[in-house]
Specification:
alpha/beta, Rossmann fold, pyruvate-formate lyase- activating enzyme, OB fold (Dihydrolipoamide Acetyltransferase, E2P), six-stranded parallel beta sheet, 13 helices, binds S-adenosyl-L-homocysteine, binds iron/sulfur cluster, binds FE3-S4 cluster
Length: about 450
């Protein structure tokens, strides 16, 4: 049997795509292997969101091709594949085929064509109408947590971002399919689903089927209620786009215990000038109103965000506004990135005016502030009891288990094997910056 090694970079959507790529390959008679050294085929599912992510591909291709003894077939999939297309064959020696973000369902055909002798095989075409969005049970990233795409693509065109170019326009999956998918996952023993998409709350399906009887001003809040009704024990969703974040989402959470205590709402900057230049579609005032609605929920929702420092033209004053915003919002966690110019995006043509040193300084200052706030928030959990899905045994110590709370914090505790896959109550005894520790009660 032909062995395939698949390595994934990037966001949850890429992880989810890889699960389906592996499912297709397994059903077409390939064997997935975690060992690149014995693989007949090596696949990279790539990310292009920042320059560093893209560079990883080139260095990995170089490593694979260093070996003079073995020459596995090498395929590039995902966002870099879609963006670079043909040029990848020139840019990086030794790539056999390139498959775009919507062509992954045809991966077996690509491999077969290369084995038949076809050179520089490429497919950047659209997804097939009857594309199968389900994942084989054997190919999931977790036996207890499943990713469920609800919308793909992005129409927002934030000026720094490559995603609309690599993923195409927004397309919502039919609610009836999503609900059916989740009912099936529940039967298979999945305890937690993550509804995923670049902007889940921009969800706008072609038909109302399965949503008719649910309340809500937006289709997404109706979808949340429909998914809650499946009885799936824990439901999380990411990412939410601030402009489209309607208070009906918080209402849906308040009314359904199984919608979890977590909202990821990327703000990007605390300055209205920078937000305008980024074309985010929200102001800091409108963002803070949404934050207030989230913080006023009786459910004690945790709030996380993404921030970019050093966007072209970001002044010291703009940066101070971001600091003030962080102090106000007190995020449970935040992903902070240094601006990385991406060719093809509108911002690429504006001079990258903040020097690398200044970017680094601003990054470190925000990171420090965030850690300080985060440590206080995490400490406030000490002596509280929270519900945790037990997902993993620690590699270092087999009596240590770890999982996520409903508010999406990593929690470590002592346990035994029969805890795996169960939802347990953990009393928190200790808090580090990114992790809580406790014991099961
Ligand atoms: N759709 C999501 C996230 C997309 S990418 C959203 O709109 O929020 C994830 C994060 O990467 C973004 O939120 C942004 O903070 C960061 N990012 C995107 N492009 C970037 C760039 N060119 N440089 C640095 N960070 C970037
Ligand atoms: Fe990128 Fe903006 Fe779309 Fe998010 S909403 S994927 S940041 S263009
Ligand atoms: Fe990266 Fe593509 Fe996701 S660029 S962040 S893998 S959508």
């Amino acid at each position: 049997m032909m062995k395939v090694y698949l390595e994934t970079f990037g966001c949850q959507m890429n992880v989810s795509d890889s699960e389906r790529i592996a499912s297709v390959l397994a059903s077409d008679g390939f064997e997935m292997t975690p060992d690149e050294n014995i693989a007949d085929v090596v696949l990279f599912n790539t990310c292009s969101v920042r320059e560093k992510a893209e560079h990883k591909l080139y260095s990995r291709v170089g490593q694979i091709r260093k070996s003079k003894v073995r020459r596995p077939v090498l395929g590039v999939l995902g966002c870099v594949a879609q963006l670079e297309g043909e040029t990848l064959f020139k840019k990086s020696d030794g790539i056999d085929f390139v498959l775009g973000t919507q062509a992954s369902g045809r991966v077996s055909k690509a491999i077969e064509n290369v084995f038949k002798g076809q050179k520089n095989y490429i497919d950047l075409e659209k997804r097939e109408e009857d594309y199968d969005w389900t994942v084989a049970e054997t190919q999931r990233h977790s036996p207890y947590v499943a990713f469920v795409p609800v919308i793909e693509g992005c129409n927002k065109f934030c000026t720094y971002c490559i995603v609309p170019f690599s993923r195409g326009r927004e397309k919502s999956l039919p609610a009836a399919d999503i609900v059916r998918h989740i009912i099936k996952l529940r039967r298979q023993g999945i305890r937690e689903v993550h509804l995923i998409g670049q902007n889940v709350n921009s969800y706008r399906p072609m038909s109302d089927i399965k949503l008719e009887k649910f309340r809500g001003a937006t289709a997404f809040s109706k979808l949340l209620r429909a998914v809650a009704e499946t009885g799936m024990e824990r439901i999380k969703f990411a990412t939410s786009f601030p402009r489209d974040f309607h208070p009906d989402i918080v209402e849906a959470i308040n009314e359904n215990e199984n919608l979890c205590n977590w909202v990821h709402l990327p703000v990007q900057s605390g300055s209205n000038e920078v937000l305008r230049a980024m074309r985010r579609g929200h102001t800091i005032e409108s963002y803070l109103k949404k934050v207030d609605a989230i913080k006023n929920s009786p459910r004690k929702l945790s709030l996380t965000t993404d921030i970019i420092v050093g966007f072209p033209g970001e002044t010291k004053k703009d940066f101070q506004d971001t600091i003030k915003m962080i102090e106000y919002c007190r995020f449970d966690s935040s992903y902070i990135f240094k601006y990385s110019p991406r060719p093809g995006t509108p911002a690429f043509d504006i001079a990258d005016s903040v020097s690398p040193e200044e970017k680094k300084e601003r990054f470190m200052e925000l990171d420090e502030l965030q850690k300080l706030i985060q440590q206080e928030i995490f400490k406030s959990y000490i002596n509280r009891t929270i519900s945790v899905l037990v997902e993993k045994i620690s590699i270092k110590d087999s009596s240590q288990f770890s999982g996520h709370s409903t508010c999406h914090k990593v929690v470590n505790f002592k346990g035994s094997n029969d805890f795996l896959g169960k939802i347990v109550n953990v009393k928190i005894t200790e808090a580090k910056v990114n992790t809580l520790f406790g014991s099961v009660i």
